[in-house]
Design a protein that fits this description.
Helix content: 40-55%
Subcellular location: Cytoplasm
Protein name: Zinc finger protein 622-like
Largest sheet: 3 strands, antiparallel
InterPro entries: Matrin/U1-like-C_Znf_C2H2 (IPR003604), ZN622/Rei1/Reh1_Znf-C2H2 (IPR041661), Znf622/Rei1/Reh1 (IPR040025), Znf_C2H2_jaz (IPR022755), Znf_C2H2_sf (IPR036236), Znf_C2H2_type (IPR013087)
Shape: elongated
Number of helices: 14
GO molecular function: nucleic acid binding; zinc ion binding
Structural class: mainly alpha
Number of strands: 8
GO cellular component, one term: cytoplasm
């Protein structure tokens, strides 16, 4: 802006700005100065009782503020994605700290065999979508990376033992682990190895369908929830482990002597004229040749009932009738069992009177206890 010097000029021809402490030669230049940002800035400083700044200092402040605004806009539009950790960052500092973290380095080392760059930075919101592998590739990749547990590794902690028996004792004592129907188990090593693969590779809980991302989290879930056991309740659960069991010893004919069996070829068996032993079904029961009956599982609630046999002796029946009459208040004093209509008509008035008396006594007792007014001349106390 142009300022006028006051040398050798009359004071009446000078126009000043007290806020900026400058002098103008014309009124037009003064009016233009009043509309500038420099003048408004000095007015605010004057209100705050601060000294004014020159035009050069104000220009430097404006350039610094513009640079700061540009930097803020650049940071606001920043976007970085870490493919290895599946995270997105909108701050340069947070993204730089993540790249230096041990968790990120471990994730990159685990995915090093893929031969692709696991981190990618996208600025100004420009992002390319990574190629998503199919489900089979993900499963194969997870099997290669996962640490499979064998029969010597504890399923619920990081301990490893020299023998299978030590491992089983540890899991039973420390983690309360037990195997259902162990008397029919024929492949214990295979069962523990299968459970180890289910935990380490599939990251699935043994008792519930809970799935996690890694081995540590699924172990922590089973310990916290008390799921250190095998799900063996529904038919689907049992069929999952049926290959490790042998239930032939529980069959009705399992106790027969096997020495009497003669093994023949298929051709001889076709020509064999021995009568065939068949089982037939009757009223939802399977009748075996031995005479034993096998009920359907849908009726097991009825088979588990333990009903007493029906008593048919007259003495027992009369005693039960007498006890029932005593409990109902009829014939309590005499204890007479009414057997015909004539005796019933003779004792009917006494029975009716006794019953009415008992009902009245019960009513009086109930009213007295309920109102707590057992005294004969009770009167409510007035405060």
């Amino acid at each position: 802006m142009s300022t006028a010097t006051v040398v050798n000029q009359p004071r009446s021809h000078l126009f000043t700005c007290l806020a900026c402490q400058v002098v103008f030669t014309t009124a037009e230049s003064q009016r233009v100065h009043y509309g500038t940002d420099w003048h408004r800035y000095n007015l605010k400083r004057k209100v705050a009782e601060l000294p004014p700044v020159t035009s050069e200092v104000f220009s430097q402040k404006v350039l610094a503020q513009q640079a700061q605004n540009n930097d803020a806009e650049r940071k606001a539009s920043f976007s970085a994605e870490c493919i290895a950790c599946n995270k997105i960052y909108y701050s340069e500092n947070a993204y730089a700290n993540h790249l230096q973290s041990n968790k990120h380095k471990a994730a990159e080392a685990k995915a090093a065999f893929e031969g692709t760059t696991r981190t990618k930075k996208n600025v100004i919101g420009v992002r390319t979508t990574p190629q998503i592998p199919n489900e089979n590739e993900l499963i194969d990749r997870k099997i290669e990376v996962a640490i499979a547990l064998d029969e010597f590794d504890c399923l619920f902690c990081t301990q490893k033992f020299e023998s299978f028996d030590e491992n089983m004792r540890h899991m039973t004592k420390i983690h309360s682990f037990f195997i259902p129907e162990i008397e029919y188990l024929v492949d214990s090593h295979g069962l523990i190895k299968y459970l180890g693969e289910k935990i380490s590779i599939g990251n699935v809980c043994l008792y519930c369908p809970k799935e996690t991302k890694n081995l540590e989290s699924i172990r922590r879930h089973m310990i916290d929830k008390g799921h250190c056991k095998i799900a063996y309740e529904t038919e689907e659960d049992i069929m999952e482990f049926v290959e490790f069991y042998d239930f032939t010893s529980s069959y009705p004919d399992a106790d027969d002597d096997d020495d009497n069996w003669v093994f023949v070829s298929d051709d001889e068996a076709e020509n064999d004229d021995l009568p065939k032993i068949m089982a037939y079904e009757e009223d939802m029961e399977l009748v075996l040749p031995s005479g034993k009956r096998l009920g359907h599982r849908s009726l097991r609630r009825y088979y588990r009932q333990n009903l007493r046999p029906i008593e048919e002796r007259d003495s027992i029946i009369n005693r039960l009738i007498t006890e029932y009459s005593d409990n109902s208040g009829c014939g309590q004093s005499e204890g007479i069992l009414i057997t015909n209509d004539h005796m019933y008509k003779h004792y009917q008035p006494h029975f009716i009177a006794s019953r009415e008396k008992k009902l009245q006594q019960d009513y009086d007792t109930r009213i007295g206890v309920k109102a707590n007014k057992l005294q004969r001349y009770y009167r409510a106390q007035i405060m």
